[in-house]
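for the record, two folds in this file. i put them one after another cuz i was lazy. first one right below, seq on top, structure tokens after. the second one comes after a little note so u can tell where it starts
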Amino acid sequence: MSTLSPAEKIRYSRQISLPELGETGQLRLKNARVLIVGAGGLGCPAALYLAAAGVGSLGLIDPDQVQLSNLQRQILYTPQDLGKFKTEQAQSHLNALNPEIEVFSYPEALGPENISQRLEDWDLVIDGTDQLPLRYLLNAACREAQIPWIYGSVYRFDGQVACFHPAGPCYRCVFPELPDIGSIPDCNQGGILGVLPGIIGQFQALEALKYLLWPERPPKPELLLWNGMNLELEKIQLSQDPECPGCGPEPAPLKSLKQLCQPVSEIQTSELEAWLKAHPQARLCDLRPSPGDALPAQLSGAEWLDLSAPTTWPTPKSQELLLFCQRGIRSRQAAQILRNVGYLQTVSLSGGLEALKTSFKETNT
């Protein structure tokens, strides 16, 4: 990739005409490789703009399938993508947008057992995950591999962005310890205005392009805070903590980080019938905040599980549990919580009842 084709010169002409960029800068983008962890609300807009800008190689890693509730903010997907792996659909749409680039799809969870391999040969990582433990793992792995990564998070009307470079402060200089699971609501619990992850994802894409174009200018160590309700933007200057448990002279591993980041065992809706036949003694647990409509036949007989009341959890801990909820998010979090206290035979239904309903419609059309 040492030259730009005539078609590429036309496609990227508005960028090339920038004196700070030119053809030299466009070639840098063409030769760049960016891994996006999470193909959701943040990953979608970041991927779209990086693909449109001509970043030569994009990788997308995410284990989830497209759900109806995703379409409000995850702008890469359409109703025709429901029930299909996000990374595979994103790959298709990005290639349609810009066939000049390469897009790699990894429909899998990222965890301690595969993160080193997945980070190989990438110039930059964009954090689009909604899992706090994974973000701490990403910080440690990128630090070890000497790869900069761009943090982004959203909640309700607020968002945050920061670029963590190996030569500067790390994520744990700002957030030293992992909060208790469930102490910080996700967008499924606290809600999110759909446009907000689009704004934050674009900030992440902008920071990525700046780094790729001018790597000799390390990003400023600062945390950007954006409030969409009041259109307020604030920057907090960051400094390296000499006693940081992540990058200080005496690094301290997070408690149970490896355990927390292990991918939760999940089954797809297409596998449900076979799994139930193979595990006839498994207990089916409904994780919805309150049971709603009648359950499909495959899940009839399920019991409601109240996560806030540990004394009511199933015993013994060695039994097999199949957890499900409306969209698969709550059940996945519950599977992590239960596993951490000894329920090692716990499985979550990916996509939940919504994905099961979509799968049923597709099978009968």
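(here's the note) second protein begins now
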Amino acid sequence: MNRSGEESVWLGFGPRDAVQVRDGRVFDAGDAARTLRPWPSTIAGAVGAAFGREVGAVRGALPTRRDPVAERWLPYFPLPADVVPVERNPRRWTRLRPVETGVATDLGGTDTLLLSAPGAGASPADCWWGAARLRDYLRGDAPAARAGAAASPFTLERRTGIAREGRTVRDAHLYSSDFLRLRETPGERWVFAAQCVLTRENTRTPQGPVRLGGEGRLADVEVLDPAPAWPEPPEDFPGGRVLVYLATPGIWRVRAPDGRWRTTWRPPLPRHAVVRAAAITGPDAVASASPDGSGGVRGAWLRWAVPAGSVYLVQFGGGDPAGTALEWARKTHGTALGADQPDPIGRRLATAGFGVVLTGRWQ
């Protein structure tokens, strides 16, 4: 049981080879398709294959390292988008702070804040924090030199191939494609880890190997013991101010004036909560498809997502903003926003692991 009373287990997926998960855009000469780390939907499919059926919810995936000394699993998280290097001294880091502007925006009103810091540089790519460092950040600590950033858990491999038609190479079909491989070092072992919330129907012991990503590549499956843990949230939220950090990409949906559900960058929040500021580095193009059992696919889709590592500064109102914020944060921390929305597609995306958030303080 976890702290919410749910029965859950953490699974680790260890790829036997480099992994290829494209962002879903056109793969053709001159186009912009990229290879990225596995989406939540990729891992959710692998979890379902391991259990033989879907679980209640999947929360992940996180690159996770086995500490050979402490003999425990340590998850890693994308660097928060409001932590950036100082432009004139990249070895020093700073945290963007909210500044009153009084400027009206299309969000309505003039209470939108600007995130800024003297000499702030551009957001870095592929930087990661361990759970302990992220916990300090959620409590409001400022970053120090190098911000405690860890080396990337991934290495990129570029492979060259040809497209064939029978025994003949197709004209103009020499191509190169990128693959991701979890870092391999002596004494260390990395996996993609996900928390799986179980239902009464999930009675089977997870089994592997399972397919992970494109080209039918395989990954071994194991139950992680002791299980990794999400960084703990703060004990209070003065003034009703909650920082919402995205641990996995977020895809949320809102009902438009014409009655249709459309993708939005704003997370679903309670009635007395508003977004005052946001640091977002995206968007990400996310594609997914399910096999149809005959070698084809069904239910293919592409949507734009808010990238993992994005940060929202949320302000609660009402008669007791601090109490309301604390109650919401305790319920939300380590879960996916949108799982209780009326839109069935939005609920499906949340249970697959899109939009898992951690909560912290902001000033």
